[in-house]
Amino acid sequence: AVFTRRRDGGTLPDEMPSTAHTVAAVAFIWWFDKMVAHALVRVGSTFPSSIVSMLISLSALTGVQLAAGAAVADRCVSVLVPGTAFLGKHLLAFLTPVVVPIPTAICDLWAEGGALTLVRVLVLHFGGWALTHATSGVIGRAVVNATTEPESPSPPATPPRTPDPEEQAVIEGSSEEEQSKTEMFTPGVRQQDREQASREHATAHQAAVRGLWTTAACIGYGVVPLVGPAPALVCTCQATLLHAQRIPKRIGLGPAAPLVISAAATAAACVSLGRLRGHTMAAAFSAYGTRSRLPFWGSAGAVHVELLSAATFALGFRVFALRKLVLDNITAIIATTVVGASSSLLATPLVARLVGLSPALSLMLSQRSVTTPFALAGAATLGPSVSAVLTASVVSIGALHCAVCGLRILDWLGLVSTKHSVARGLAMGCSSYGVGTGTLLQEGEAEAAGVSSAALVLMGFVHAVLLSSTSVVTLMQRLAGASS
Question: What is the C-alpha to C-alpha distance for residues 318 and 446, in angstroms, rounded to an integer?
């Protein structure tokens, strides 16, 4: 893909970033996040590096703005725009490996309590997610409406004057001639031609990239006996993701189609290649997710996941670019995140206990509303009985809920993108992790994606603060029916 970008670089519009600029920006974002991650490990902190990196960068940019002005801070952000745009565009590729091992979680739930336990967990999880999702959107809309000053009524528009018959004849007679002259000297015509050429180039480029990854996948399966299944699975994930983007949204999966199809195809290939090598399904998925100390080295899943934390960190630059929108709606963001985190941690264990789930599963479900690093840290806080594997899978299932139903629920509630971008961003950020923000970016809702990024960060902090309290943890254990 990099070589095709370089080859076609001469035909790109002038405003498009170069390949070298994009690679350098992505490398810097990844390196900075890695340095923060190493520092957190050395001090024994369990906070996700992406969130800490985001806070450090936002603080630094705010300091630059105060010292040198907003224009200088915006120029600093513009240097990294190619990298943030690349990571945002390909966010689903980095999230796919997180969704791939879901079959192991389903098997684990089945082994623990059979079909009844599995159905209870899935229904309760979807119900809790949908309630948090819808409530966040409704609360966000209510708070935004309450804090926004009503617009002064505009004076009634004067109806246009209807020309008399003689004027109409003159207009019709000269319309064709004037239109041809106008088109020759209208600046927008040349811009439209440039945009059309850019779209045609993008279509051809995407077709070339899809063909490249498909060819690489075929080669990857051919070298499985020599180097193992990692190259084949990497290419399968990427190729199916690219091809699935051509599927019409009306088939029922909406923006989730690429994620679901790519994860399902990669999971099937992972299990099939594992069986050929004598591995069980659990062992095949374990090998798929094994990471190495070396960056971009190791299993097939680690290759994509390596950039997931950096892509999450890069969302912070979108927050800064839309800082005025975020600050204007900070009351709504705080209100929705506090309600979302509190209800997830306290209401979920109680409801899960009432429907007959075990204390371990009830506590595990309480981590459904935050990103995977926060969820895993929370599971460790709640005790060794809470499975880390199931917790990560629950977050992945929640990502699928968001991708398939997130925007549809908001549209059904009347929270359309043209009027309620803030409420849509709050709903996706408070219940749908990075997938919600990625879905908004793919749909072209930049303002909602910025609010979603801010809500995602604050949601994680409220969650972490609550779990740092021994009283809250004890209360959760009692609500779930576990001994304190």
Answer: 8
Tokens of 167: 């004027």
Instruction: Give the pLDDT score at 63.
Output: 92
pTM, entire model: 0.74
User: Which residue type does 101 have?
Assistant: P
Per the CB < 8 A criterion, the answer to whether 376 and 232 are in contact is no
Sign of CA dihedral 459, 462, 465, 470: negative
Residue 199 tokens, joined = 């779209």
pLDDT in the model for residue 483:
62
Confidence check: pLDDT of 160 > 70: no
Quote the tokens at residue 29: 């974002």
Average pLDDT, the chain: 79
CA 67 to chain centroid, in Å, comes to: 33
Label residue 226 exposed, middle or buried (CB < 10 Å: 0-12, 13-18, 19+): exposed
- With contact defined as beta carbons under 8 Å apart, do 389 and 104 qualify? yes
Residue with tokens 């990560």: 392
Closest CA to 289 of 10, 96, 133, 467: 96
